Amino acid sequence: xxVDDYSGPFDPAFELARLSRQALADLGRELLLNGHLxxxxxxxRVLAKQGDEGMTQVSIEEWMGASPIYSKRMQRALGFExxxxxxxxxxxxxxxxxxxxxxEFRFDLDGPAYGEFWLECCGPLLDVEPFGEERxxxxxxxxxDPTFDATAAATHPCAKIRPIHRPxxxxxxxxxxxxxxxxxxxxxxxxxxxxxxxxVQASKxxxxxxxxxxxxxxxxxxxxxxxxxxxxxxLEDFSHRALVRINLELAxxxxxxxxxxxxxxxxxxxxxxxRELAGQQWTGIAGLTAERLQRALAVGGDGAEAxxxxxxxxxxxxxxxxxxxxxxxxxxxxxxAFGECLAFEEGDDCSWLAHLSDEPHPALDAIARAVNPxxxxxxxxxxxxxxxxxxxxxxxxxxxxxxxxxxxxxxxSKGAHIAFQRRRPLRD
Length: 428
Description:
Layout: H1 21-37, H2 39-78, H3 85-93, E1 103-111, E2 114-122, H4 123-128, H5 133-153, E3 159-165, E4 178-184, H6 196-201, H7 240-266, H8 271-296, H9 304-313, E5 325-330, E6 333-339, H10 362-371, E7 375-379, E8 386-394, H11 405-410
Antiparallel strand pairs: 1-2, 2-4, 3-4, 5-6, 6-8, 7-8
């Protein structure tokens, strides 16, 4: 019987499919936010090293190298492949670029070739407005213009997304924050995707086939999104099996975006900078999401069992078809091990796990310390077919470790503190 949270005993075999539909819907909102906020760590680090121009280009190219791939994946996963504006809108509803409630999207679909969407409230805009009009234009003009078209072109090469109005807001209290029209312009030339897209598409994570439960573990909900576009669609509308797939695809979206980000960084810098930024980005989002997951899944306490649960459920270690993570309790703490798996076979340094070795890593510490600030994660000996192994221990006599700078950076965004609301009961 599916459970509504992970408040029960730790189970080394626990998996996403054990959660109920409502728990999976709640978790999905967290994973959308997780994928979105990882840039809140990575891009400021690029800004510090490469200035405004470097940050702008990485902002653009990382999304252009990932979004078209995961858009098509979600279409195939939920059976809504097509070449219409409604297909683009469905993608936006299930995209880490548009996390629910942090970005309040609204839609009006006029037909297969035209529609409009607007943001009643845009969390990223509220994050950026205090830094002045120049930063607002960078995000809402320089970055959004090419990245919106790249996402739309994944559905139709002649699809366009153009502003009706957008920030800077005039007056400063204007609502909705922006409004856009989406249309198919068959008279225009086909959109030319960024060359990095082909490189990201060749990765093992981009081509991953995700294994799913054979059947729904509880009744109700849409088995796919093949039906008409629903402007009020919520995660609660989907079936149990569909929600398992959505959550795994959202975790995969995060990995694809990180891969594209690190590819862009590597094209502008040296391998040491790639390693440095990979560690910083992973640490910041790993710690923030671990803290939020503990609340979202009702993981009580601050002991070894709570740490083990958070490691087990953290999206940076999903899908399991890609990352072979093994978590178990030991007398003196938690053992976290990695088996040989596709994540270690990518053959490049464009992923977080590519920089994981038999040395301490701040991202693992950040996850453990989100539960208990006295935790320490250190490498340990491997067993059997393990590739890497770590032991997490809590020293109750030691002073709390200070929160990592990159976790603090992730928390600068208002999205880090959002409390999600359930706005619709489960669909029958």
